[in-house]
Specification:
By secondary structure, the protein is mostly helical. The chain has one domain: dinb family like domain (Four Helix Bundle (Hemerythrin (Met), subunit A), Up-down Bundle). Helices cover 53% and strands 0% of the residues. It has 5 helices and no strands. α3 packs parallel to α4. The protein is globular. The chain starts with 17 loop residues before the first helix and ends in a 5-residue tail after the last helix. InterPro entries: DinB/YfiT-like, MST-like. It comes from Actinomadura litoris. Pfam families: MST. This is DUF664 domain-containing protein.
């Protein structure tokens, strides 16, 4: 039997500040993503265990671009040449044979740091800048809405990754 991986603790259940709670849970899930990939066999990182066909490295790339799309291109309206990342012929995030987990992890961590700076410079009740992802007036969601959306993306996909990791090598964790 494989020993379950113990995650760091969730944010305190005494938090009442929405900004701290959202930021804490986003960092908790960002860490969980990397923890679930650590030590995964190379072949399993690049293979799909599910009918949908995605691989764990593709999921890492997807969540990197979730941050780019919603916070850089979306909220900050930065000009992003390829906001959805590059897709392969099967319409999934393309991970080249030359791309390594370490490189993709570094890109993810850089992207998360940029997201933290964007969030840190704004109020939760601020609305996304016009342009970028939201090029029609009135479309712009609030930062708090965007953060909840990004949080649910992580929660949903980490559940998928739990299953894939258990199928790959029996490792289970929270």
């Amino acid at each position: 039997m494989v020993t379950p991986v113990q995650p760091p603790p969730e944010p305190s259940n005494k938090l009442t500040d929405p900004r701290e709670l959202l930021a804490g849970y986003l960092d908790f899930y960002r860490d969980a993503l990397l923890r679930k990939l650590d030590g995964m066999p190379e072949a399993a990182l690049r293979a799909s265990a599910l009918p949908s066909g995605w691989t764990p490295l593709e999921l890492l790339k997807h969540l990197t671009y979730v941050e780019v799309r919603w916070l850089r291109w979306g909220f900050a309206a930065e000009e992003i040449a390829v906001p959805y990342g590059e897709f392969g012929p099967d319409d999934r995030w393309h991970v080249g044979e030359e791309e390594t987990l370490d490189e993709l992890r570094a890109a993810f961590l850089d992207t998360c740091e940029r997201s933290r700076r964007i969030v840190g410079a704004a109020r939760l009740e601020d609305f996304a800048a016009e342009g970028g992802r939201f090029d029609e007036p009135g479309q712009e969601p609030s930062l708090i809405w965007i953060l909840f959306h990004v949080l649910q993306e992580y929660a949903r996909h980490l559940g998928h990754l739990d299953v894939v990791r258990e199928l790959a090598d029996g490792t289970i964790g929270e």
